[in-house]
Specification:
Blueprint lengths: L3 H7 L3 H14 L3 E3 L12 E6 L3 E6 L7 E8 L4 E11 L3 E9 L12 E11 L2 E14 L20 H4 L3 E4 L6 H9 L6 E10 L4 E3 L5 E4 L2 H16 L6 E8 L16 H12 L4 H9 L2 E5 L2 E2 L21 E5 L9 H13 L4 E5 L11 H8 L2 E6 L1 E3 L6 E4 H15 L1 E6 L2 E6 L1
Helix pairs in contact: 5-10, 8-10
Length: 432
């Protein structure tokens, strides 16, 4: 499996993240399933299925009939700019790309950085629609900032407007070939064959390990690729369970609310779990019994306390970089952690000899949300929201801790090697 810096470099958008996850699964013997075909599952088998080319669910079947599902989930996309269907804005001087925001972004962090374009192309090849991933793998765009001499007062960087200030500069207006032509050339297909596209900007700056002792990592898309990487590595390295279905989910569209066919709000996870049970000969009643002894870990990065702005955080419920896995709480259940799931996950961390810490928003701000409460609504399992502490969330270049990735891998590995047995009034936690 790639190291985390190379993994992030490959995952330029949700489709390339899913592709990278699938490549890793292929390399360790997982069998790809088609959601639109019959499934024949075997005890001891390893399988995965994709939806929309941007979400992945992988699972390991135990050698005996399953008694529960141990599920870890993250999301594979990050805030970015999506290129509109008619992509170019042209005047007598420059060609820019016409973009709109995908997710909540720190707009100023995208200025003056080397950018490129990647995503998905649909091409009409011989009368059939062919889906292709494309990455224009070069420094091809930049969003120039306005000099301070020209941007005093209300025109400063705090008042950036997406329509006015954020279209990236692509070329001079004389002699450009266009972004769709460049994408077609990259794929070796005629431009005229392109009938649809989902193209995103991405930051080309490489991930860097830095600090006096190499304790920090800065990179684009750490939210949530750091968790995707750690979950995938823990899933790949854990042993096989005797009686639980070890399950990994990488969802799309978390940054825009998850309300898509491939998001956590869809039936993707719940339908896969039901199909597994049915293929193994379990009744619907037995399937529901399995869910009662199942658990969902929702992994999405958390806000580390800021060195210059500690006033933005709760007085006592804040995490620090490299302080261990962050357990996230919210009274309104925007984070799904409750007393039961908190206790279960703390026991798993203790068994893994992994540090943990906590996060809650200041009581007078709403804060964000993530996958856990959404996915758990569809699957009806106990769930906990966790993450790794980072700075500058939703920036084009974010910062986290190098040790925390290892902490997450250890905890996830232990999670997959755990079995939960629920009964009226309690939960027994034991080795799978």
């Amino acid at each position: 499996m790639k190291n985390i810096t190379d993994f992030i470099k490959s995952c330029t958008d949700c489709w390339h993240t899913a592709q990278e996850v699938c490549k890793t699964l292929d390399s360790i013997g997982f069998v790809r399933l088609d959601e639109g075909a019959d499934w024949k599952l075997e005890n001891g088998g390893r399988y995965y299925v994709t939806r929309n080319m941007s979400s992945v669910t992988a699972f390991k079947i135990p050698k005996s009939l399953p008694e529960g599902y141990m599920i870890a989930a993250a999301h594979g996309e990050s805030p970015s700019f999506k290129i509109k269907a008619v992509p170019e804005l042209t005047d007598k001087n420059y060609v820019r790309l016409n973009v709109e925001a995908y997710g909540g972004m720190i707009l100023s962090s995208w200025l003056d950085k080397p950018l490129s374009v990647s995503g998905r192309i649909v091409a009409d090849i011989g009368g059939e629609l062919s889906f292709r991933l494309v990455n224009i793998d070069r420094d091809s765009l930049i969003i120039p900032s306005l000099a301070p001499h020209l941007s005093r007062g209300a025109e400063g960087s705090n008042s950036l407007n997406i329509r006015r200030d954020m279209p990236p500069m692509y070329a001079l207006s004389n002699g450009y070939k266009g972004i769709l032509k460049e994408a077609a050339d990259t794929l070796g297909i005629p431009k005229e064959s392109i009938t649809g596209c989902d193209l995103m900007l991405y930051n080309r700056e490489p991930a860097r390990i830095w600090g006096q002792n190499g304790e920090f990592i800065s990179a684009p898309r750490l939210d949530d690729l750091q968790c995707v990487y750690a979950l995938l590595k823990g899933f790949a390295e854990c042993g096989d369970s005797a009686d639980t279905v070890q399950t990994l989910c990488v969802f799309d569209n978390e940054e825009v609310g998850s309300g898509t066919k491939q998001g956590a709000k869809s039936d993707f996870l719940s339908s896969v779990l039901l199909r597994i049970s049915m293929c193994l000969g379990l009744s619907y009643g037995k399937h529901m019994q399995c869910l009662n002894s199942s658990f969902l870990v929702s992994a999405d990065n958390a806000h580390a306390i800021h060195p210059n702005r500690p006033d933005a955080y709760d007085a006592s419920n804040y995490p620090v970089i490299n302080g261990g896995i962050v357990i996230k709480y919210n009274a309104a259940q925007r984070y799904t952690t409750d007393a039961v799931s908190e206790a279960v996950f703390k026991r798993i961390c203790k068994n893994a000899d992994t540090p943990y810490q906590v996060y809650a928003n200041k009581s007078d701000i709403a804060g964000g949300s993530t996958l856990g409460n959404i996915a758990a609504e569809k699957t009806c399992v106990n769930s906990v929201d966790i993450g790794l502490a980072q700075l500058a969330m939703h920036s084009a270049y974010e910062t986290a801790g190098t040790a925390d990735t290892s902490h997450m891998v250890k905890a996830v590995t232990e999670f997959y090697n755990t079995r939960l047995m629920s009964y009226d009034g309690g939960i027994k936690i034991c080795k799978a």
